[in-house]
Structures are given as C-alpha cells and as structure tokens.
Amino acid sequence: MVLDAKRDKADFLLLPLAKRMRNVSPNTITVYAFLCAVFAGAFFFMHEPESMRLVYLFVALVFLSLNALLDALDGRVAKLWRKESKRGDFLDHLLDRYADIFIIGGIALSPYCNVFLGFFALVGVLMTSYVGTQAEATGAGRIYAGMMGRADRLVVLMVAVILQMVFMAMGILRIGIEGYFDFTVLEYTMIIIGVLGHATAIQRAVLAWRKI
Questions:
Q1: Extended strands (E) in the chain
Q2: Which pTM value belongs to this model?
C-alpha cells in the first residue's frame, strides 16, 4: 500500500488533467481505464510471429501505463468536481477487478510465464480485494492496508515489463540457475505479486477480525 497511500503526491500530473475534465464523467474514465487493461492483457497474450514479441510487449506496456494513469485520474476528477457517487465507487471497484483479471490473465497465458504462477498471482490479487470489501460488508469498514495495493502492483508490473523487454533484446529469456530458479522476469514478478498479494489478504483479514 506504499503508493496507494501517496496518491496525492501524483497531483502534479493528475491535477492539470483533472482540471480540464469538468464535463467528463468519472465513470467514463473508469470504463476507458478498463478497456486499456483489456488491450494490455491481449497484447501480453499475443506472441506470434516471434519477431513481433518485443513490439507486443511495448504496446502492452503502453496500455498498462494508461490503465494506471486513468485508474488514478477517475477518482481525482470525481473529488475535484464533486462527482463522487456510490455507483461510481461500485463501478470503479468492479472494473478494477476485471482489469486485474485481464492483465494478469494475459501474462499468465503468455509465452513469458508459467500459467500456474500466473494463477497463483491472480488468486492473491483477487483475495486481497475480496477481504477488504468483505470487511466492509461485515461492518468493519473498508480496509486498504497491507503490503501491496493496486497502485504498487501496477508499478511493479510496468518495471517488470521494461526489464523483460531489455533482457529479451539482449537475447536472455530466463534468469537463474537452470533446473532450480530458472524463470523469466515476468515469472519472478508473478511470484512476488502472488506472495505479497496473499500476505496482504492475511493482513487485512487479521485487521478485520480484530475490528469485528
């Protein structure tokens, strides 16, 4: 939750954009953020012809970055122009989860990742969100605390994609000791996201249990 707690620090970028969007619905921005996630996942999955893989990864990175930007911008626009609503909050959280599925699912089904590692990461991400919202449903209030929030996860993914591209450009696909820890950058990233995701879910569960 390091970056989620410091979203206000990004106002130097978000505020000028938000000020130009007085007549734009935050829900529209949320939908566009989701569509960017869909395209990111699709380009992660695309791998033929092999000569185009670096291009596909770059395009996936662009859409992933746009998803991160728009995901932060919709809330900023809602607050700035007083357009916050329960429907908007619901839509934001709903589409964020689908966005996570498309992004991590695309990586899991890509040639750069073992599908089981991708599944491990995806379950961790979904459980992190579920525990937070379930706490609210049982009267403990929505819980955002924990090691890794969505903003942290998106930044980690963007850095991982860049590193994956760099190593691929150097002709290196896997890093580690062959037969032991022999993974791609994105596989290592799925392990990190999975471990921290499940740890965050446990943290939130403990906090919710104490509050209940």
A1: 175-176, 182-183
A2: 0.92
